[in-house]
Amino acid sequence: MSKTKEISVPDKISGFSQVRLDVDLTNGKISKTSLSNEFCRDWIGGYGFASKILWDECPAGVDPLSPENVFVYTHGPFPATILPTSSKYGVFAKSPLTEMFGMSISSGSVGAQARRAGVNMIVFKGKAPELSYMVVDDDDYYIVPCPELVGKGCWDTEEILREEFQDQRLAVMAIGSAGERMSKMACITNDRNRQAGRTGMGAVMGSKNLKAVCFRGTKGVKVARPVEFYKLAKKLIKVANGPATAKYRDLGTPAGITSYNKLGMFPINNHREGTWEKIDDGTFTGDTLNADWVVKKVACSQCSIACDHIAHVPKTHPDWPNLYASIDVEICYSFGSCTGCYDWPTIFKCVQMCDDLGIDAISGGVTAAMACELYDLGLITKKDLGYELPFGSTVNLVKFTEEMILGKGFAGEIFGDGTKQAGLRLEEKGIKNASYYGMNIKGLEMPAFDLHGMTSFAVGESVSIRGACHLRNGSYGLDAKGNFDRFAYDKPLERGKAIKELEDIYAIIDSYIVCKFTRGIYENDAEMAKVFELVTGIPVTEKFIQTRGDAIVTLSKCFNIREGWTRDDDHPPERFFKESHTKGPAKGVTLKEDGYQTLLGGYYEARGWDPKTGIPTDVTLKALGLDFVIGKLKPAGGKK
Amino acid sequence: MSKSKTKKRGGVVHQFIIVDPNLCTGCETCESVCSFVHDGEFNPINTRIHRVRIEPILNVALACQKCDDAPCVRACPEKALEQNKETGSIIVDDDKCNGCAFCIRACDFGVLSLHIQSQKALICDLCETMKEEYIDPERGERYPACIDVCPKEAISLKDVEQIGEEKRIDAVKRLFGDILKETEA
Known about the structure:
- The complex is a heterodimer of chains A (640) and B (185).
- By secondary structure, chain A is of the alpha+beta class.
- Chain A has 2 domains: 1-239 and 451-640, Aldehyde Ferredoxin Oxidoreductase,  A, domain 1 (4-Layer Sandwich); 249-445, Aldehyde Ferredoxin Oxidoreductase Protein, subunit A, domain 2 (Orthogonal Bundle).
- Chain A is built from 26 helices and 17 strands.
- In chain A, strand 1 (19-24) and strand 2 form a beta hairpin.
- Chain A is globular, with a radius of gyration of 23 Å.
- In chain A, 62% of the residues are buried.
- In chain B, a hairpin with a 3-residue loop joins strand 4 (50-54) and strand 5.
- Chain B is globular and about 65 Å long.
């Protein structure tokens, strides 16, 4: 840790409660230890903490759904303070969906309540004898068997537990039936509309018979330098309600539908196309969604932005009367354009089921889109499904989605664990090349970006530690904003450096943990470092947090390598190399394999990883203070 | 807080915290900052303004309504609560308050609570007792911190006369907006 020692740690630090709970669900034993000041300095918070814990404590090659997998809840130093979007938490484990580093972040009230209760991290191991929930009620920690909650949705579970505790502020992170049946796409829901959706963390809870974790606390949170912090926080709250976040507040992220459609980058019909006449004619836009359907914008605890757009289906609707659902661009894509559906109430119904019954609405929609395409090609039929499922389905899409979530019927049997498993299962049934239609990277379904004409982001999304993801480095901006020629393969090292720079600071954002939407409210990385100092008392610098971001990304990459990652895993689906759009700005364009590999090598080089193998060199590991990894990068053969 | 420019016929009009449910997103920042400027730590359980969320879409926060002949004052068996005639604020005498919570039971709006550590009654005093170090330097005087930090400007300090006037203007615009459009044309 030679690098980190340059930053002195005060005897007493603030912000972090530093309390780590270890919960052995098998025998119900709960023990309490303290996270050291140095650990908090070096690993910053959420993502950083978990990258170290999973490296140290998750057995190499572990079956993600076995009791031996390690499930980590944690947050950074900010929850309960008025720093904008501070009330966030992360969950981490080896992912059942990717068999690599699993992570998912959510907001709502959980982070703030957990912090006020005084915990900083909970490490769950083992498996409870029966379905149970854990309670963190200030200093009272206990596990309660809950056979009465078997099969309950996330929303019911939250309501029942709040009633039980007679406390409408009880923070509840729960799984639904999908998590209980260990769907690899299962999410964790809290505060109704907030999900830790990605990489199947709900399945890991399900595998441990852990139905829910409840938090409430009455402890006040002090910061190291309150007067200065208050001044800076007030400024950030004002900026966070200014132009930097306007698009998230006004139309919400669905504003992106129109702008990405213009670039030919909004995926239609399982990524066959990147533009859509339903967007061109105004049927399927953020404007229409807001004008016709959105009735309220709601905020998570301590959030100045309020991006949560609640849509309402009127009482007069024949199929889904009086339905409320939380909408963002990702589900407009996954259950909307990607399945060819432009019927808003259908999309709302699908996302409401995902949130309540407990699967990730991105993975769910993209899996449904795969089924639509296979149906379109005649590779699965009405005889298989029991109903038709062309692109643009409505009632049948809802039926499919429900079966997929609950694991029922053909839809559940084949598609209930996401696109990767669906491909493998169909291939076993003799449908050759079915996996080709599963739009995932490392097994995680793709977010709302088409990659045909996005050469930088093709790399950025593919190298993401947790599988297909736009939030590990946000490098779509490099293409969309024109930093690089999005159709070319030039400047591999420059592109690699640009992706790395973003990825390092995103790793800090995920460790703080604050919302990516607030990235633009800080004047610069130095101000981001300042806010950490004012809250914790640890005098970190801009350079320090950037380096720690680098170390966090590299360590979680090492986790993946230990689990059997190879260079081939950092690769977009074959479709982008073989088929092009028939219209729009990316018409006729495919990704080129040699060009892609050149850019990928550039990224590895920028990271100080071997440009050929993508494995961090010993020199890099030493420079980042990751000496403890050296010699331990031999794959454990965990990845199937 | 005696700088109110509005006067009720025959007396002073009390201003109080009012929150617009159309603007409130339920972010709880008001609660956190309330506890912070009074106690120096973030702890919404010690807030004097209370966010209420009723799923799926209702969000609002409530603070002391400055009732005339306030029931909380009448209910206090220790005579620990007193209403400032000029501002309408309820002042709690911590030396007398024994935490019996009769005031909480008497309040129709649920805006009183007990401080989790001291067990003394808590009620919005428009930040008259905020810590000096958190006074906004530009403003130079105590002012409700929740109004200052509310990201959606959903919180304001108003009296019933102002509220009535605003509602009347809104209603007239709704009812007779056509005439206005004609004058603009």
